[in-house]
Amino acid sequence: MNHLLIATLLVCLSTTIRAATATPPPVPDVEIVLRETQPLTFPRGSRLPLYLWTPNFPTADDAELERVLKALEARGIALFARWGGNDFAKASAFPLRVARLQKKLGLETSVDATGLAHGFYNGTPATGHVDKDGKRFFDKSFFWSPGCPFAVQPRYDAMRARLEPWLEKYQDEQLRLDFWAADWEFDGPNEWNSGWASARQCVTCRAQIPNLDTDFAAFQTAVRKVRAEMQREVFVKPIQRRFPNARIGNYAMNPHDGRRYWWDFFEKRTDGLPAKAEHGALYRPWAREFEDCGYTVAMPVIYTWFNLHGEYPFANHQYRWFYNLLLEASSTGRHTTPAVPRVTFVHWTTTNPPKELPKDFEALTETSYEELLWHLLLRGHDTFAMWCPAPELAQEVRPVHRVYAAALEYKEFLDHGQPVLFDVPKQPGFVVSALQLGKKLLIRRTDFGPAPAFFELKLANGTTLRVPKVDGKCLLLTTP
After folding, report:
1. Helices within 173-268 (DSSP H only)
2. Distance CA 283, CA 475 (A)
3. Please, is 323 exposed, middle or buried when counting C-beta atoms within 10 Å of its C-beta (0-12, 13-18, 19+)?
4. How far is residue 133's CA from residue 273's CA, in Å, rounded to a whole number?
5. What are the two backbone dihedrals, phi and then psi, of residue 475, each rounded to the nearest 5 degrees?
6. 187 CB contacts (<8 Å, ≥6 apart)?
7. SS3 content of the chain, % helix, strand, coil (to 5)
8. Helix extents (H) in 348-410
9. Shortest CA distance to 364 belongs to which of 329, 334, 326, 394?
């Protein structure tokens, strides 16, 4: 065998080995979603879709993109087209393709404008606090280093200028803009961490806020008023001028009972700040900012923050999660009017966990998570905006879509029923939620410990219903 033939065979063998051992290309996000979900059994009608915050649309040709849009619609799923980037012509090309096809197919258009929403505090000295010596400084306890709440207004025009070209283009092409949303949680002034301490060192803040040294509530109100103005003037009003019927919402912006029951990953517990203690949890006073922002969609956050598990002593570890998350969900459900849709951010797998978990740690199970989602729907939440890191996509989308799709069997209750239960038991036992429509009630009961075979449900009209224990199912009962 000559040397040339041997070399050729070796090359072919090497190529074959590489082909056999090469890592297959990753499955596109949207194909994972389609693989893990099924078309709806019950029609969605005019109900809001299930929103998925994480997955990307495919960037293939229009025929493939249209196929995907139809397949998602059959499952009741909507993805957000992303707005962002400094080069508008380049950045807008793909979202515009999506919007044109959605218009052609008669589908809603949902956009995530987070990429345009941040930048109020851009590091320029003019946006900083001012100390007694006239020097500018920023609050380094937050990673975006906010400055003075009363120095950010001059940035409004520059921030609006980032959004306006998108709105103008969609309007000029007569494209739909049904839902505009953002994850704008950073960038603005904030009362937590060192926010209050920084303000007390600022001569501008001291001049603007009476009793700043001693009155945290006054400081919080002032800070949240500025944050609301930022969002109202830069986001909401420009959108409504061009698209008056668009639904507009933002992460963690929702009506509530005056408390927040969870801490975001950038918020640190700080001595001297007010909070209501329960076991190891701290529930903070929260300003009523949703209405001042002008948002038309409530977007509460129901995430399995790691710290929740260790803050409650319940022997039933599943109820540690369930208790806190249902407090937050009930706060929104009870205080949001039916005219305001509730599109709730949800995340199942443990959120922001440490590298090493405690020995007694028990994550929220898939069954418990699905029960939680059912209780949200029966406490007035309309649909979900599922967020997750990309590696979690397959496991996250399965349970949330399963509940969303199954709940459509009770579409009449979801559309027209009124929540009648918002109690959250302080100890593990059983949780009951219900929607009432005329004399009929759609009820979900979930048990977490010893509980009676029947629960006596007292209604506003004075009648009583006996609610039996039924695992993993909804009950339909009729009042006398």
Report:
1. 195-200, 203-208, 216-231, 237-242
2. 33
3. buried
4. 27
5. -110, 145
6. 117, 118, 119, 120, 121, 144, 146
7. 40, 20, 40
8. 366-377, 393-407
9. 326
Please compute, for residue 271, the number of CA atoms within 13 A of its CA located in the half-sphere on the CB side. 0
Task: Kindly give the pairing relationship between strand 276-278 and strand 179-182.
Answer: unpaired
pLDDT > 90? residue 60: no
Tokens of 451: 């509980």
> What is the pLDDT of the chain when averaged over all its residues?
93
At 405, list the tokens: 């799709």
- pLDDT tens by residue, 137-192: 999 999 999 999 999 999 999 999 999 999 999 999 999 999 999 999 999 999 99
Q: Are 318 and 312 in contact (CB under 8 A)?
A: no
pLDDT per position as a tens digit, 307-339: 999 999 999 999 999 999 999 999 999 999 999
How far apart are the C-alpha atoms of 256 and 139, rounded to whole Å?
A: 28
Query: Cα separation of 191 and 197, whole Å?
Result: 9
Helices (H) and strands (E) in the chain, counts: 16, 20
The number of C-alpha atoms within 13 Å of 352 and in the hemisphere containing its C-beta is 13
DSSP 149: G
Indicate left, alpha or beta for 85 from its phi (over 0: left) and psi (-120 to 50: alpha): left
The domains located in the chain, with CATH, are 33-417 (3.20.20)
Do 351 and 264 form a contact (C-beta atoms < 8 A)?
A: no
CB-based burial label for 103 (10 Å; 0-12, 13-18, 19+): middle
Residue 132 neighbours by CB under 8 Å, 6+ apart: 201, 203
Three-class DSSP category at 415: helix
Q: Quick one: tokens of 441?
A: 């009630």
Strand ranges in 151-268 using DSSP code E only, listed in sequence order? 179-182, 247-250, 259-260
Bridge pairing between strands 81-84 and 110-113: parallel
Report the alpha-carbon distance of residue 314 to residue 279 in Å, rounded.
Answer: 10
Pair 306, 316: CB distance under 8 Å:
no
Q: What is the 8-class DSSP label of residue 298?
A: B
What distances in angstroms separate CA 252 from CA 184, 193, 299, 427, 471, one per listed residue? 9, 18, 6, 27, 32
Integer Cα distance of 238 and 170 in angstroms: 13
> Nearest 10 degrees: CA dihedral of 304, 306, 307, 313?
80
DSSP letter for 413, please. H
Q: Contact, 282 vs 316, CB < 8 A?
A: no
Apex CA 379: angle with CA 375 and CA 381, to 5°? 95
The tokens 């001693």 sit on which residue?
214
Q: Measuring CA to CA, how many Å separate 178 from each of 98, 99, 109, 141, 241?
A: 13, 10, 5, 37, 14
Radius of gyration for the alpha carbons in the chain, expressed in angstroms and rounded? 25
